[in-house]
Amino acid sequence: MMIVRHAHGETRTSFSVININNFQSVQEQNLVRAMELVDRSMEVYFSADRQAMYRFYNPDTKVRPEEKASVWMYSASIEAVNAILSGLRLQKEKGNHGLFDKHYKRYVDLLAQLHENAAYYLGKFNLISFTQTKDWTVYAVDRAREKGEANATGILNVYDDQMWMIRELIEAYHLTGKDTYLKEAEYLTAYVLDGWDCTRNDQGNENGGIPWGPGYVTKHACSNAPMVSPLVWLHEIYKKKKDQITYNYIDAKDKQSRRSKMIRKSDFYLDFAKRIYAWQKDHLLNNKGVYDDMMGDCYPDCSIAYEIVDGVKYRKNTQLRKAVGTSFSYNSGTMISGAADLYRATRSKIYLEEGKELANASFRYFARPDSQVSAHYTYASDGFNNWFNGVLLRGFLQISPVFEKAGSYMDTFQQNLDYGYSHFLRSGLLPQDLLGGWHADKDKNNLEGMFMFAYAAQYAMLSQYEAGG
């Protein structure tokens, strides 16, 4: 472990650009707090050269254990920086050039640095999928000592990790215009969609769904819904272009022969967005109106099965007999986002209505009134729920332009963040429990770095909402 020492106030961070008592607006305060949290987190969770992110830091003991962050945790830093850049650009559009001029470039540079060092998680492996055998270079769960040398075989890479990176890469492309971000996003998208179960059932329909990873058979909400919005965004990027892409599939008549054809990218991406959204809704929406964790109960077992067709080995479908697991907030949040984006792209009112219903059901299910602090709503903060809840907030933000009530749900996040900031800010960091504060035993206040970046992203998203973004 390492002792991290930085000169920093123990009860309130300072921000050299703006006096905290002289904010012009709530959205500006939110954005400044997002930047404070990111800047402080870069100090204590990253190595001095910013090449490695550590998982934990204790603001009381100043101890940072040696455990490195997984790629999922690392992607939270990129998410926070992208959210800040979006907020800064919106501030400029609203006429506030001060924050933009002073900070935009340094966060664009930080984004580039974070992306460059994400390569420590990249690794190569060979995959037999439902339609082909191919070598891929993708993000592994764990970091390697050298760039591009991570172990990505078997269960050591998962599709949802790629999806979170795809989301941020497309956002980075929109913010910077750099084609390198878009190129990588599309490469990883091809990898993820290669995991789609295109095997046919007795009726000739696709079984559908994407397993958690190439080493798993269970199909999770987190390895499907996060891909809906990025696919819509890719559709919109190529909507007015004639670019084509190879579409691999299985013949619907003989239910075995592997086929391929060239189709327009814009059509390909939108069609897959619709299919993934429909699969998750059909299989994982429960009677509470929110989403279960995954399709499980594998039959005959949960081992990966293969079949030989025309002398070639392919992955085979494994029957999954029921939806199981906990309902986590992010698995509904991604579907709210997906519904909002599909509605924008298609103008089909069914997506709007389903998005509204899910937003209402999610707030009822995940927000508990007055359970810790009067007039505040508690969201679960154990496990990884702080990050999960940020995905739900994103869903509320994305549907808010067409569903005004979502704004009141977002207000509860604003209340909780502000409560934690006012009552519990310590050494520039916020506790895992925003309404309950710190553990009395200082040795038990190890904080997940991804949570600090999640809080920063939430503040930045709230800034966008308050500014009318």
From TrEMBL:
Superkingdom of origin: Bacteria
Record key words, sorted: Hydrolase
GO MF term set: hydrolase activity
Cross-referenced Pfam families: Glyco_hydro_76
SUPFAM superfamilies: Six-hairpin glycosidases
Biological processes, Gene Ontology terms: carbohydrate metabolic process
InterPro entries listed in its UniProt record: 6-hairpin_glycosidase_sf, Glyco_hydro_76, MUG_Protein
Protein name in UniProt: Hydrolase
Record organism: Sphingobacterium athyrii
